[in-house]
Amino acid sequence: MQEVVSFYKKLPQGPAPAAKKSANPLLRYKAAYFDGDNASGKPLLHLAVAVLLFGYALEYQHLKAHH
User: Fold this and answer.
1) Nearest-angstrom CA–CA distance, 28 and 19
2) C-alpha span between 28 and 55 (Å, rounded)
3) Three-state DSSP state, 67
4) Dihedral sign from CA coordinates of 59, 61, 62, 65
5) At a CB cut-off of 8 Å and minimum separation 6, what does 33 contact?
6) What is the DSSP letter of 13?
7) Cβ contacts of residue 31 below 8 Å, gap of 6+?
8) Is pTM, for the whole model, over 0.70?
9) What is the pLDDT of residues 30-64, one digit of tens each?
């Protein structure tokens, strides 16, 4: 039993250190909008805007030809 007690005494105590910021933009986006208490619906808005911009970019030459 003494070995178990000594093992647990060696473990770090107190709150866990804050996670480091990631250099990967996708992981930072995930941390900002999906993880923890700050989860929100903003990624749906971001997706809708991205789809609109992508669709406009695809149709731009066609729309420009009608002027």
Assistant:
1) 11
2) 26
3) coil
4) positive
5) 39, 40, 42, 43
6) -
7) 19, 22
8) no
9) 988 998 888 899 999 999 999 999 999 999 988 88
